[in-house]
Amino acid sequence: MKSSLTFAGVLIAASALASAQESPSQTASFTIPAKTISINYSAPSVNGREGKLFGKDGRIAKDRTYPVWRAGANAATCFHTDADLDVGGLTVPKGDYTLYVNLADPDNWELIINKQTRQWGLTYGASRDLGRVKMAMSKPAAMIETLKYTVGDEGGHKARLQLEWEYHVASVLITVK
Fold first, then answer.
1. CA distances (Å), 97 to each of 64, 113, 131, 171, in order?
2. Beta carbons of 87 and 111 less than 8 angstroms apart
3. Rounded Cα gap, residues 134 and 121, in angstroms
4. What is the DSSP secondary-structure string of 107-123?
5. How many CB atoms lie within 10 A of CB 121?
6. Which residue from 17, 19, 80 is spatially nearest to 44, judged by alpha carbons?
7. How many Å apart are CA 10 and CA 17, to the nearest integer?
């Protein structure tokens, strides 16, 4: 009996660990003139749901915050900057924020920078938005299985924040002020 309970406990623990690994934590960061910009997020995978994630009938549309998406999985996506920034025309003072994406128009996403931090991804309050900016949209050469953020050098104190998943690539220019 005792060994059966131990075995059951091991199975439950293994199952919980496997679930946590489905959307592992990731960090994208970049340093511009000794100032760091970082994004901490959980990276979901398509997992056979190709073509069933986005749109009014997609998996993401079932979230209570839709058409606002947490732009990741699990906890809300965290954005930190050591410098004052211009993000696609929006002034962003140095500090900590949460990133969301407005998917109301599937072909024209908006990046939302929200002042609330450390919340679960499905906890969104528009009253805390610092602002919203349009993202440049493109299609990848092939389907992207796992969500990925990058912050890449554009030269001259500029970087490009890019989010890629499934058949979507959305980006916005960042300038250090």
1. 21, 6, 11, 18
2. yes
3. 21
4. TS-EEEEES--S-BTT-
5. 20
6. 19
7. 11
Query: Does residue 172 surpass a pLDDT of 90?
Result: yes
- 8 A C-beta contact, residue 32 and residue 25: no
In terms of pLDDT, which residue wins out, 33 or 164?
Answer: 164
- Which residue, chain included where needed, has tokens 């993000």? 87
C-beta separation of 59 from 53 below 8 A? yes
Only one residue has tokens 């998917």, namely: 103
Taking the CA atoms of 129, 61, 119 and 17 in sequence, report the sign of the dihedral they define. Answer: negative
Residue 175 has pLDDT above 60, yes or no: yes
pTM of the model: 0.85
Compute φ and ψ for 156, nearest 5 degrees. 60, 45
State the pLDDT at residue 55: 84
For every residue of 24-76, which 3-state class applies, written as one string? Answer: CEEEEEEEECCEEEEEEEECCECCCCCCCCCCCCCCHHHCCCCCEECCCEEEE
What pLDDT does residue 11 have? Answer: 39
Side chain identity, residue 70: R
| Region 89-118 average pLDDT | 96
Cα distances (Å, whole numbers) of residue 90 to 25, 132, 140: 27, 7, 26
Residue 25 has pLDDT above 60, yes or no: yes
Q: Which amino acid is at 134?
A: K
